Amino acid sequence: MSENATVLLPPRAELRRMVPLFAGRGTYRLVIAVSNVVLATAWGPARFAGYAAAMGAFTVLSFLTALGVEKSALKLIPRARRTGPELITAFVLLPAVLGAGCLVWVAVVATDPLTFAAGALAIGLGANQVLVGLHRVQGRPGLDVANHVALVAGLVVTTLAAALGDLGPTAFVGWTVALVTGLNAALLVELRPRTFRTPRRAVLRAASGTSMLMSAGEVAAAAVVSLVFVVLAHSPHHEQAGALFLAVGVSSLLVKAFGYLLRVVQPQVSVALHPAGAGAAVRARSARNARLLVVAGTPYLIVVTALAVLAGRAGLAPDVVVLLVLYLACAPLIFGMGTINFLLENGGRAMLRRTAAGSVAGLAVAAPAAYLFISHFGAAGGLAAIALGELVHAAAVLHVPERTP
Asked: Taxonomically, which superkingdom (predicted)?
């Protein structure tokens, strides 16, 4: 990989443009983490646990709505010469249809206004990330920054209202839904719909097929997170939902920053891996790294999970601290598989299918593991199930073919 590093990194001018993007998204994630702490203090453990359970349960809807469109756009559009406007249209229609379907589902399953608002917010945030990604791939990164500045401002205002006034969870999420909806409408207008071009059937197939394959990893991982919160909320350890939500909020600063770094460099990586044979070295290195991750990561996960469970039962630290340390301890596994998945999904079609299938395998193992682990170990078991899904994903991509068809 080292010999390819200069090819995969963007030029210095592009690196300078990354700084505001990182600052905008990084500040947003930091404010979310701080906001969660303030809200937990203002609402109390029981009320915050209900909020955390609702928000955590619908995590997957953001990724179902987006369905990898941002990643697909950053992969396909830089390669497109004549189909760019058609791809843009397809990448707007796809999340619009998926988001509408998800919203109908939320309306059916929602048991109270907070649950409905949490689902609507997850859908809106998924669409938001698609829209800023489409602007960024068209050379308008400033709108990405402005969007996140507005999100930060809105989050600060509503958090202060909850801390100093009487703004409860439902109203808090409702105002955020209104803000995100307004931002999405403005971003859509700025895409200049007059320049859209009706996509041909072949373009629609390419856009939707690539999006589904590239989203498999994120959707599967998010589905495990949502499942963990659902199972936890209906288990004897339901009071740990708030602590888990706080821990995930803090640790996700690193996870989101890492994921966004991959999105920023994706256009250059996609172009670099596009020529025939360019990804052969990447495939071989990815297989070696996946093998190392499985062999070293499995006993490592067992040890760190056991230590976290023992520390929690002995009362050596508050639940949120134990969970945060465990989540950070699992970060190398998550980042390692994230890097492997990123390179494979930007390679040939066979590699993309392989890593997508691997993510489904990870979900198939992590889902029952979450139920079993949470029943015995509480929230710490849920985090272990999330990391286990990454290890199973790595095991499934060990046999990536050396030559793509």
From this structure: Bacteria
10 Å Cβ neighbour count for 299? 9
Report the length, in residues, of the chain. 405
**Centroid of chain to Cα 342:** 13
Q: How far apart are CA 366 and CA 361, in angstroms?
A: 9
pTM of this structure: 0.80
Nearest to 356 by CA among 239, 252, 227, 213: 213
**E-strand stretches of 92-226:** none
The rounded Cα 269 to chain-centroid distance in angstroms is 20
Which alpha helices (DSSP H) does 274-318 contain, by range? Answer: 280-314
Torsion region of 44: left, alpha or beta (phi above 0 gives left; psi -120 to 50 gives alpha): left
pLDDT digits (tens, 9 = 90+) for 337-359: 888 887 777 666 777 788 888 88
Tens digits of per-residue pLDDT, 49-83?
A: 999 999 999 999 998 888 877 777 766 776 666 66
Q: Which of 115, 125, 120 is CA-nearest to residue 53?
A: 115
3-state SS track over 147-164:
HHHHHHHHHHHHHHHHHH
Residue 202 and residue 3: Cα distance in Å, rounded?
A: 36
Question: Which residue, among 348, 344, 346, 341, has the nearest Cα to 404 in the 3D structure?
Answer: 348
Distances (CA, A) of 363 to 40, 211, 358, 391: 30, 18, 9, 11
